[in-house]
Amino acid sequence: MKKRGRGIATIMFGFGYGEGFPDHSIAAIEIKEQGPILVKTAAADVGQGVLTVLTQIAAEVLRVAPDRIVLSAGDTALTKNAGSTSATRQTYFTGSAVQKAAEGVLALLYHYGSLALHCNHPELVVKDGRVYRYDRPDHFMSYQELARLAHEKGELLQAEASFFPRTDAPDPETGQGERVYVAYTFMTQIAEVEVDTATGLVEVLRFDTALDLGKALNPQAVEGQIEGGTVMGMGMALMEEQVIKAGITLNPDLTGYLIPTALDCPPFYSRLVENKDAAGPFGAKGIGEPVTIGATPALANAIYAAIGIRFFELPITPDKIIKALRQEQGTNG
Description:
It contains seven helices and 13 strands. The protein is 31% helix and 25% strand.
């Protein structure tokens, strides 16, 4: 017999190191006399797409197309500390540093543009790699020409910025603090499953997600992270079990240690809730780890809704389900 059930889970996640630990990121942006605009950051992209987001942030502030931006990511000769790619922090921290550096370069574009075009800042338009006066749009200077003007003055058209927010150590008695983390991401997920009571197999039929992320800088990438994180949570809930005996892992390969594949993935339906209530770039929050947290309890609740049995140990594998069902039947006579 196959039984269906739905389960819900709501989570909150404080991102960044938090709890009073120093946490910051440094970024720099330079416009050279030739070539693209260079963004210097040590932020590591491990597949989450942060370099794409940083490119978007720089392009948005500097009012150019993203293809005008080049990142010197991870070049230790050019970059300064961006912190670790962990704690769901890179978009918030390095994104904020890049935004501040870009705003510094934008201010220099206005400065050198006003000198070159003999006007005040409010009379200028800075757009599409050009600086010109409102009343003379055909008389412009490119960003690169302004970089040359700065070089002639012995200066560079560049800016460096750091983002270093404060957090508070929690009270040792209560665990509370005024600002323990820089911000919080909130998410609710609903899982729908079908449990085969003859085999114990659980088929995930659907996942619905509502994610409060402040601002979706790249909605497609956010949806990808929701789906990837949810699949990781599915693995934790249903499959991934490390078997250890006498200190030795008995299933050290993917033959015995199962992880979800594309064939295990259900349809995903995601809603991005944009509140812009954080101090991140354009109001964005971190989402990397939060989207892995809700799937497991949602699935556990869905299985409970389907067969009426609570499980308190992960993963909830078919053999555990069959054993629990048999015990339930024995208890009920």
